[in-house]
Amino acid sequence: MNLFTEWGMPKMKFLTIAKKEIIDITRDRRTIMMMIVVPLLLVPVLMGTVFKITMSQAEKASEKQLKVRFIGQQYAPNLYSAFMNMEKTIMLDQIPADSIPTYIQEEYLDAAIYIDSDYQSEIDKDGQAKITIKYKGTDSFGITKDRIRSVLKESEIEIISQRMDRLHLKPEIVKAYNVTFEDVASDQEKLGKFAGGWLPYIFIIFGFMGAMYPALDLGAGEKERGTLETILSSPATRLDIVLGKFLVVMLAAFLTAFIALGGMAVGIQRIPDIPPEILTVINDVLSFRTIGLMMTLVLPVAAFFSALLLGLSIYAKSFKEAQSIVAPLNIVIIFPAIIGTLPGMELNGMTALIPILNVSLASKDIIAGVINPVYMGEVYISLFGFAGLAIFWCVKMFNREKTIFRS
C-alpha cells in the first residue's frame, strides 16, 4: 500500500520506481557478481596472468636452444664457425638437405642457412655473397630470425671493415648521411598510443555486461514472473516506468565499467615484474583527470547500452529469448573497438561520430594527452544523440501493448 502511495506522488515517480528496482536487483546474486565481483577481481587477475605468461614465454624463447642446419660450410668456414660459437645453438649437420623444409615445418629444426658456392669469390671481389635463410616465421617472438641476423650482421661488419682497410678508405665514405632521430613524443603519448587501443575494451565490454543482466531481469524477467502488470497498474505513466528502469540499468552499467577500470589500476600496481620507470609513467597517465575524462565517455555509452538492452528485453517473451537476442551483440560491439586499434585510425571529424569506435579513439587520445576538444565535443554529441534515440525507441517499445503482453 505504501508503494502505491509513493507512486501517487505528483513528482519524480520514476525515481521511486528506480529506488524499488535497485532494491530488487541488489537481491540478485548473479547481478551483484557481474557488477562488482567479476570486474573487481577478474580484471586484475587477467592482467597479472597475461603479463606473467608473456614474460615467461619471452624468457623461455630467449633461453631456447636454436637448432640450425648449415648448407655449404666448405664455402664459408669462418661464417660456419661464427654460428658454431653462437650461444645456445646446436648445429644439426646430419639432417638430409631434401628433408629440411619438412623438419622446419614440424619444428624439429629452427632454421637452415644456405651458402652459395661462389660465396668466397664474391667476397674477394668486393661483391655481395648470396645467403638464403629458411625458417618458420611463426616462432615465438621472432627469436630465430633475430639471432641469425645478429651473427650475419657481425660477420658483415667485419668483412666491410677489412675492405675499407685494404682500399685505404674510411668507413664514412659509404655513409652519405649521419642521421639522428629524436623522438619528441612524450612517454605518456607513447604509452597512450600503445595501451589506448585496448584499454577501451575494459569499460566497453564490462559496461555492456553490467547493463545486460539488470536489463534482462527488469524487462523479460518481470514479464516472465508476471510482476510487470503490477507496475503497469500503478499511477505511474509508461514513461516514468521506463525512465525508472533505465536509470537503474545505466547505473549498473556505469558502476561496472568504473569498477573494472579501478580493478585495472589496482592490478597494474600488483604486477611485480613491471620496471619501476614504466610503472611511474603508467601512474602519471592514470591520473584523476584522465580517469575522469574517460568516465565522461562511459556515461553516454552506458546510457546507449542500457536503453538498447532494456528495449530488447521488453520485446522478448522470456528471459531465455532475451538472452538469445542479446548474445550476438557481444560480438557486434567488439568490432568497432577492434577497428580503433588498427594503424592509421585516428580521431577526426568523421570517426568522432561513429559510436563505440569514437570511444576507442578518444580514449587513446585522452591517455596520450593529445585529445582535440572539438573532436571530443563531437564524440559527446554523437554518444548522447545515439543514447537519446535508444531511449526514445525503448519508450516506444514499452508503449506498445502488443510488445508488453507478448507471450
Please state how the strands of the largest beta sheet are arranged side by side. Answer: 2-1-3-4
**SSE string, helix = H, strand = E?**
HHHEHEHEHEHHHHHHHHHHHHH
E-strand count = 4
> Mind summarizing the main beta sheet?
4 strands, mixed
Terminal CA distance reads 29 Å
Number of helices: 19
SS class? mainly alpha
Low-confidence sequence ranges: 1-10
| Proportion in helices | 55-70%
Give a short synopsis of this structure:
With about 400 residues, this protein is mostly helical. It has 19 helices and 4 strands.
Blueprint of the fold:
Elements: H1 2-7, H2 13-25, H3 29-62, E1 66-71, H4 77-84, E2 89-91, H5 100-105, E3 111-115, H6 119-124, E4 131-135, H7 143-166, H8 187-195, H9 199-225, H10 228-232, H11 238-269, H12 276-285, H13 288-315, H14 319-326, H15 329-332, H16 334-339, H17 357-368, H18 373-398, H19 401-404
Parallel strand pairs: 1-2, 1-3
Antiparallel strand pairs: 3-4
Helix pairs in contact: 2-11, 3-9, 3-11, 8-12, 8-17, 9-11, 9-13, 9-14, 11-13, 11-18, 13-14, 13-17, 13-18
